[in-house]
């Protein structure tokens, strides 16, 4: 009598083992990529952060010397200040602009709306490329299209917007804002999930358009805003291509973002150990800022499941 249940349990165990093997087989490529291209490089860079290493010879362990050098390096603070200024300018403007376009697209239901959404998304696909960065630099150069337009309306402007310390960083911020497509599509999806009954009830109560936006749309979109905010901050801290291609950190280090400073230390000065230390400091900064955003979200992010 007990042989049959035992046989069934063994059969189930064999089936479970077979299922697990199939599962591990399917995720094996991801596991390989994670261990080889993510985990191992991170652990290696953590070790190299405590060494003197030029990328060719054997690493020489020097303890905390890289971090002592870093915190006495004025260029480190310059790049950090430029990066924070870039993040503080880019993230709010891109969020606001992408939300504005999303509101326009989400409230239009004519046949060609899909084409408009696709066209607005294209800058996000192309914006991070070297080719677009080169074109952007040309547009805002002394002989660029912007000056040509200003001259056409009677303004004699010959300045290079990417060559002057007061305007170069804003050109990079403008390029970042132009890459709003991903945030826009996420906002459109969030707006579509807001029940129409909320707006109908607000209209019956006599709520104006601004009141409906601030009392219904923004609170209901707060989880989406939180997601776009967090991802935008992380992406902005890691920006590199725009500064490298358009201005190369100039003029006078006014656009020397942190990632470009890491690149210079590693591939121009061959201070790989110092660059690894810089990278881990950036990781810690992003982690602290992310924790702050998560903590602050408790007071402004609305989730329906919580019954707030």
Helices and strands in order:
Blueprint: H1 3-48, E1 51-52, E2 60-61, H2 65-71, H3 74-106, H4 113-126, H5 130-139, H6 145-152, H7 168-178, H8 181-192, H9 196-204, H10 209-237, H11 241-247, H12 258-268, H13 272-297
Antiparallel strand pairs: 1-2
Helix pairs in contact: 3-7, 3-8, 3-10, 4-8, 5-11, 8-10, 10-13, 12-13
Please summarize what this structure is.
This protein is mainly α and 308 residues long. It contains 13 helices and two strands.
Distance between the termini: 57 Å
Number of E-type strands: 2
Proportion in helices = over 70%
The best one-word shape is flat
Following the backbone from N to C, one meets helices and strands in this order, namely: HEEHHHHHHHHHHHH
């Amino acid at each position: 009598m007990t042989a049959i249940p035992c046989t069934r349990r063994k059969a189930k165990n064999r089936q479970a083992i077979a299922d697990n093997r199939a599962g591990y087989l399917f995720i094996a490529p991801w596991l390989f990529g994670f261990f080889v291209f993510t985990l191992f490089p991170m652990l290696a860079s953590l070790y190299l952060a405590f060494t003197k290493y030029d990328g060719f010879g054997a690493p020489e362990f020097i303890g905390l010397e890289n971090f002592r050098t870093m915190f006495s390096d004025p260029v480190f603070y310059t790049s950090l200040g430029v990066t924070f200024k870039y993040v503080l300018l880019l993230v709010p403007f891109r969020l606001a602009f992408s939300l504005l376009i999303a509101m326009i697209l989400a409230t239009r239901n004519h046949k060609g709306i899909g084409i408009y959404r696709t066209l607005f998304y294209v800058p996000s696909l192309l914006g991070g490329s070297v080719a677009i960065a080169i074109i952007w630099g040309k547009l805002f150069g002394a002989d660029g299209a912007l000056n040509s337009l200003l001259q056409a309306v009677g303004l004699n402007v010959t300045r290079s917007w990417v060559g002057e310390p007061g305007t170069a960083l804003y050109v990079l911020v403008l390029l970042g804002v132009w890459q709003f497509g991903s945030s826009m599509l996420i906002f459109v999806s969030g707006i579509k999930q807001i029940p129409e009954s909320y707006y109908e009830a607000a209209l019956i109560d006599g709520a104006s358009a601004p009141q409906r936006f601030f009392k219904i749309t923004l609170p209901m979109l707060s989880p989406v805003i939180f997601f776009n905010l967090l991802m935008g901050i992380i992406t902005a801290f890691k920006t590199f291509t725009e500064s490298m291609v358009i201005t190369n950190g100039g003029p006078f280090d006014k656009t020397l973002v942190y990632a470009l400073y890491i690149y210079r230390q590693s591939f121009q000065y061959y201070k790989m150990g110092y660059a690894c230390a810089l990278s881990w400091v950036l990781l810690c900064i992003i982690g602290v800022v992310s924790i702050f955003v998560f903590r602050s979200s408790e007071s402004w992010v609305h989730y329906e499941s919580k019954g707030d």
